[in-house]
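Dear colleague,

As promised, here are the two records you asked about, laid out in our usual form so they can be pasted straight into your sheet.

NAME FIELD: protein one
SEQUENCE, THEN STRUCTURE:
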Amino acid sequence: MCLTEAASFELENEVLAQMGRPPMSRAVHLATWGELLLNAMPLRSPGLDLARFAELFPAAHQRYLAAGRLDVIPPENLRALDLLVEQGRTVLLLTSRAEAEVRHLLEPDHVLAGRVTGAYHQGNTRFRKPDPRAFDELLAETGFAPGQCVYVGDSPGDAVAAGGAGIRFIACLQSGVRRLADFDPRHVTAAVDTFPEINPVIEAL
């Protein structure tokens, strides 16, 4: 839904530059995309002072948000969300991001307001994808059964978590971060090239 990887790559390299460290390659960023940021950074920049990176990152993150460079949602993706809501479906977010990284998505003046009814992140879940228990709080609080849910994601870890929880999974390849061959087919119900293609897929499930 949000096209974030390219901007995140630039943001993280900006913080590395502040620390006097060489930039990571795009290849290593793509290979570790979907992992928790502070778990991925030692792989993206071996020998990194992780505590210092964590100290510098929030201010840089806020600058990127203020400039409208992060979590860009194309208009056609918003229309796809609107269609889901019009059909009476409940739209929820489940991410492994820290609460501070998603707080802006939950503001009353954000474009997702009125479209998304709840968000689950590091601040209100005990487990992280690809652990299937990442869905525990969502399922418990909404009362939905796994069979009533469909999860849309762009990483193999998303598919593993959903599959392990008994939730159908749609692989969305719009970001270009992954190819369908990167996913375990046992966990993939369907795949789409762009986010709006989920509407007819969900309708057919």
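NAME FIELD: protein two
SEQUENCE, THEN STRUCTURE:
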Amino acid sequence: MKTATLSRKVHKWLFLFVGVQALLWTLSGVYMVVMDLDFIHGDHLVENLREPVSGSGDLVSTESLLRDFSSVESVQLKSLRGQPYYVVRDGDGAHLIDARSGIEISPIDGGLAKALAEHYYSGELPAASAELISENPPTELQSRALPLWRIDFDDRYGTSFYVDPNTGALVTRRHNYWRAFDFFWMLHIMDYEERADIHNPLLLVVSILSLASVLAGLVLLFYSFGKRRKETSLSPAEARA
């Protein structure tokens, strides 16, 4: 009976400590399983991510780009809103070049950032606001490199698009269901800062304590059934004694 008493105490006190987290694991796990990941990623919100480049006969030659920029690492021809552009990457970063005039247009301003976001957006609403984020990024950007234009839409999803001012590319999109998913993910892995480290010490400690509580409960279950079998084997008189 000493083992049963010890197991009962371990199970009770440990579960008092980890019970709330066990409930949060369950609730967050249900949300993450029920929600479709493509929906969470915001695939339904975007279009025109890969446009074919047309009319490439009158473009500035790449040889001239190599003369204008030093230490060129790569040159990419892409289409933005049906117009051809070069993205030149060198030691100073990325540069967006009008492929017909050869004029650099990066970093793009808020008006062009909004126009590009509306082009990427699959809905009908115009962009509501544009904000250049160069420091103190929101947690939903995680480790994305700054600066980025944040373009918000007043739709039912609370959609935000993040556009690179140096390339015009849509870096990522966020909406309220994604934000809820990210919140539940934080609760699930118990990383309340970066929301990315699934090997953090707090999660490890609570997981071990939860396992110990479950094992103690299994021991109690074993003794409970053992006691019940013993009582049923007694005669009525012996059981009342």
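A couple of things worth noting about protein two: Confidence is low (pLDDT under 50) at residues 234-240. The radius of gyration is 29 Å.

Best,
R.
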